[in-house]
Design goal:
single chain; five-stranded antiparallel β-sheet; 6 helices; 19% strand
């Protein structure tokens, strides 16, 4: 399945999908994509604290292909340290939301 179509279907699955995968679940989305496309690589935006998946010379997240050149230029390959931390990002985010909300 085309990655853009896959992301569109995923977004339309539930109204909260974009929020889930942009607010703590971005690395988990990468792992879902990687399950079907084992060769993809994770890239990290240190300003937005967000993970993008590199696929066929493009970068993707739940919103589709990243076209913002400024963001693309600041992406870094995903480090081993981030790989260890990332699985709990969603928990940290939602705990903060509940505390602040």
């Amino acid at each position: 399945m085309d990655i853009e179509l896959f992301l569109k279907i995923l977004r339309e699955t539930h109204p909260d999908m974009v929020e889930i995968f942009t607010r703590g679940g971005c690395y988990r989305l990468h792992l879902i994509i990687k399950g079907e496309r084992w060769w993809v690589k994770a890239w990290y935006d240190p300003i937005e604290c967000h993970v993008y998946t590199e696929y066929n010379d493009g970068f993707y997240d739940i919103n589709g292909q990243l076209l913002d050149k400024e963001i693309i230029e600041r992406l870094h390959p995903f480090s081993e340290k981030l790989k260890r931390e990332a699985p709990t990002w969603h928990e940290d985010f939602w705990k903060k939301e509940q505390k602040d909300g």
